[in-house]
Structures are given as structure tokens and as C-alpha cells.
Amino acid sequence: QRFQAELLQEIPEVDAVVGTGQVDAIVRVMNRVLRSPESRILEVGPPGTAVDLAEHRAVSTPRHVAYLRIADGCDFRCTFCIIPKLRGDLRSRPLESVVLEARRLAEAGVRELLLIAQDSTSYGEDLYGESRLPQLLRALASIGGVEWIRVHYTHPKTWSEALIQVFEEEAKVCRYVDIPLQHVTDPMLRRMRREVRRADMERLIETLRSRLPGVAIRTHFIVGFPGETEEDFDQLLGYVRGAELDHVGCFAYSREDGTPAARMAGQVPERVKLSRRRALMAAQRKVAESVWGRWVGREVGVRVDATVPGRAGVWVGRVEQQGYEVDGVTYVRTPVGGRELRAGDVVGARIGRARHYDLDGEVVA
């Protein structure tokens, strides 16, 4: 979407370049290339729109789990982020279209839906003038065969009382909140243009934990953002040590051409950024050891994802508080002569060991 003609010029093996807003043109462009192999095609227009996939899509995940895109683009203008230039403003799919695709996925055997967007909590604002994520979740929860609904990429500013109520009331909506915080000091949040303060985020997380017992919080932070001082980082490090977040990722800030942050004064040296990232992740590793250590001795439901190659009777899966492909996993062992498990099933397991981010358990009758 950004480099366009440069890609054709610098990579002669490329036959065509298609923009993020022209996804529907891919087949037509491919046919043009096949008809005229000597031609090189550039078809890039305004940045992306949400593609309606209810009629056609390939599912690359295991049969029981599928990603479900509900929107594309973003109306926030975080200073570090290039997404609005590449994907455009928020473009939501009509609620009926999302539900139709979800029904078809369920009919094909999908039991867990992974809702994705650049900003899930703003879903529907461009179409309906307000967020319709609560209504969408209730509609998805009514679909037979769907057992878990997991929401990814929420924004701390756009959580609402209606959304929290859905998480409380709908058993199929996982007690799992993916909410990138990015930083915790107000000066950094302002420079990042996050439109929230530390007090707002702490109040939200406190509310979620008090009203959603057992909820897992997943987040990301950026260290080494332009202007981040040692005091800023120490406050972030202290927050990570004390907040006991279930899943934490951390990026060393990367200067992205075309973003306001790339032009900011106070760029942090690369070695300092990497050092801060190592320190934060080391702190989170200790937190994770404590947080996930509390699961030892519990009997919980584990959704089976696959067998473990080379380990007879051992399967890998996840508890409700572990996201597919992005978090730790739970290994379960079946007793000798026990029943054969199937991918997608939820089995009862007793957790016997925690290994920082992963759990080990035994299947119980």
C-alpha cells in the first residue's frame, strides 16, 4: 500500500502489486497476469475496506477453530501506528454478514470463534453510529455448535458497560480480555496519543476482574518509545511486577516511516530499547510463574487442539484463559487405555504442573 511502484522496480520477480483496498481484485489481476505474463500490474487505490467473506473464504486453522474478521482499519491515530495509512479508517462488516459467516463456520464444525479487527470494541460505529459489539456477541452466542467466542484487540477507551454485561451474562464469551495498553505513564500515553490515562486503564482492569471472576488479561507494551525516560520505564516495570497480568508481550519501539513518532525528538538508542525489553520480559516471566502456578491442583476444562508428535497419549490444548496461537498452552495426558481424544473436544483435566506460561495436566474421567 505504501511502496507500490518501488516494489515492481526493486523486485523483478513480482508480477503484480495490489493494494489493501483492492483485495476483491486479486483474482482478476491474477487472470491478467496469466493472460499476459510479460505485463507487470500495479493496482493500488484508497486503503482497505472490510471484505465480506460470508460467501467465500478458506479456513487455514484446524477444523474446530476459526478467525472471524469483524472490521478492518482504525479511527484512532496512535503516533506509532501505520495501520490507518495502510488499512484506512474503521470499516465494519454488517452484523448480519458476520453472523451468516459464523453460522457457516459452525455448520462446518467450528466450535471456537476468534474475533479480530484492528479495534474490535469500536465495531459498528461507522455503520450504526455506535458500537455494536455487544449485540454481535449475543447474536454469535445464539448459534448452535459455537462453544467459545474469543475477542481480540480491544481498546481501553472503548469498553462500555453494555460490553462488560455481555461478558458477564454470555457463557460462550470467554473470560479472556485482549487489551493492548502500550504504556502506563501519562506522559508516554499522551505522546502515543492513546486517548486514555493510567487511572482509566487501571480502573477498567479492576472492574473487569471484579465482575468477571477468573478473567485472563492479555496485553502488550512498547518500550523505548521516543521520550521514554528511565523514570517512565521504571514505572512501567513496577506496574508489570504488581499488576499480575496473565499474558504480556513487549515490543522494542521500531521507527516506522510515515508515522508522527518517527519524527519525534528523543529517539531512544537501540541498545537501551532492547535492554528495557529484556528487563520487562524477565519481570513478566516471574509474574507468570506465580499467576499460572495457582492453576496447579485445579480441575479445569481443556479444549484439545492436536496430538503432540512423538509423545503417545499426550495432547496439546488450551484452557479458556489461553488464546489460540498467541499464548501458552496446556498439555494433557490420557491414562493408559483411556479414551481417544478428538481435536475440538473439551475434556476435564487436573493440572499437575505449571511451567511459566504452559500447564501440564492429566485427563480425568
* Largest β-sheet summary: 5 strands, mixed, barrel
Structure summary, number of beta strands: 15
State the separation between the terminal residues, measured CA to CA.
53 Å
- CATH T-level fold name of the largest domain: pyruvate-formate lyase- activating enzyme
Account of the 3D structure:
- The chain is of the alpha/beta class.
- The chain has 3 domains: 5-43, no CATH class; 65-293, pyruvate-formate lyase- activating enzyme, CATH 3.80.30.20; 299-363, OB fold (Dihydrolipoamide Acetyltransferase, E2P), CATH 2.40.50.140.
- Helices cover 32% and strands 21% of the residues.
- It is built from 11 helices and 15 strands.
- The protein has helices spanning 5-10, 26-35, 83-87, 95-107, 125-128, 133-141, 161-169, 186-192, 198-211, 230-243, 270-293, and strands spanning 16-18, 41-43, 65-69, 71-72, 91-92, 112-116, 148-151, 176-178, 216-223, 247-252, 299-307, 314-318, 330-333, 346-355, 358-363.
- The strands form 5 sheets. The chain has a 5-stranded mixed β-barrel.
- The N and C termini lie far apart (53 Å).
- The model has no long low-confidence stretch (mean pLDDT 92).
Layout of helices and strands:
Elements: H1 5-10, E1 16-18, H2 26-35, E2 41-43, E3 65-69, E4 71-72, H3 83-87, E5 91-92, H4 95-107, E6 112-116, H5 125-128, H6 133-141, E7 148-151, H7 161-169, E8 176-178, H8 186-192, H9 198-211, E9 216-223, H10 230-243, E10 247-252, H11 270-293, E11 299-307, E12 314-318, E13 330-333, E14 346-355, E15 358-363
Helix pairs in contact: 6-7, 10-11
